[in-house]
Amino acid sequence: MTSSTKPRILLLGEIEHAAARKEWDDLASLAELVTPKATNRAEFIEECKSGALDGVVAVYRTFPSISTTGRVDEELVEALPKSLKFVCHNGAGYDQIDVPVCTAHNIKVSNVPTAVDDATADTAVFLTLGALRGFNLPLINLRKGLFRGETPPPLGHDPQGKVLGILGMGGIGRNMAKKLRAFGMSVQYYNRNKLSEDLEDEAKYVEFEELLKTSDVISLNLPLNPHTHHLLSTPQFALMKPGVILINTARGAVIDEAALVTALEDGTVASVGLDVYEKEPEIHEGLLENESVILLPHMGTATVETQEKMEKWCIGNVRAALEKGGLVSPVN
Q: Edge to edge, what strands does the sheet with 217-220 contain?
């Protein structure tokens, strides 16, 4: 078979790890591997319309590739080659992709689900312990040469005996629950559907408002979609225990960031541990100026092992699309 008769697969973004890169290169036996010349959305749409990418049947895309293509929405899908049948996204969250639009155009979308569970849950545990203990301010003072500061930092809180409320009890939520139970926390959760007893693993299912009212720490572990956008805002903060701690390793826009800053300023929320932001890479000034909160720059899956697993999983979806006409982890 000549290269001209092979299907084509498009790489949007980078494959960073050598073992995964070899698996990608091995796909050359099945398809022509192509990359775009475009560096922004306008150029990419023009490149698609020019016919330069005709024959592409599958796309491997990364989270940072949005800087080249923009969101995968109606305008972009209309411009993509008519041959395209599969969009393989290297990430658990896929809010950069308008899945209903892809479905309407008979394009299957996949994500990378369980590969991210450990690393993201570990990040959530770090943020939980750091926020409970109030470690951010001492870290700042120490680097200023003030050791414990001009006055001793406020005392923190132990995790033992505290109630962890998880919004979204998927793989990451369950992983986090297991790990924080080892620190003496009890776990309750709210989910679209109550889990089986095996999956609950002694966690208690409660309704949304009850979770808000009775949790000492609330962790967001759910996808961003029109139903979860600003799931937590001023009315929800008002229901929470005074001094509650919020943890978000999901997507920034599930929390109304401006309302969160107000809740921190008036003491409704004692602290937060955030890895994601509503308009990242922009971060609300009220969060940056608040020394009692712990902030990370979207590092939930930033480990060598997890990134390699994610890349291999996504390549596995591309291979399945080529060899079997289906996906390992479809979302539509």
A: 204-205, 186-190, 163-167, 217-220, 244-248, 269-274, 294-295
Closest to 221 (Cα-Cα) out of 189, 184, 198, 245:
189
Question: Which residues neighbour 66 within 8 Å (Cβ) at sequence distance 6 or greater?
Answer: 96
Nearest residue to 317 via CA among 309, 278, 77:
309
H-helix or E-strand spanning residue 288: helix 285-288
Token pair in block for residue 81: 């080659």
Residue for token digits 């990040």? Answer: 123
> Position 317: which residue type?
N
CB-count burial class (<10 Å; 0-12, 13-18, 19+) for 311 = buried
Active site residues: 251, 280, 298
Q: Are 115 and 315 in contact (CB under 8 A)?
A: no
E strands of 72-173, at which residues? 86-90, 108-110, 163-167
Digit-coded pLDDT (tens) for 114-134? 999 999 999 999 999 999 999
Under 8 Å between Cβ of 54 and 81: yes
174-201 core/surface letters (b: 16 or more CB in 10 A; e: else): bbbbebbbeeebbbbbbbeeebeeeebe
In this predicted model, what pLDDT tens digit does every residue of 159-208 receive, in sequence order?
A: 999 999 999 999 999 999 999 999 999 999 999 999 999 999 999 999 99
Residue of 294, 280, 306 lying closest to 121 (CA atoms): 306
Q: Is 236 helix (H, G, I), strand (E, B) or coil?
A: helix
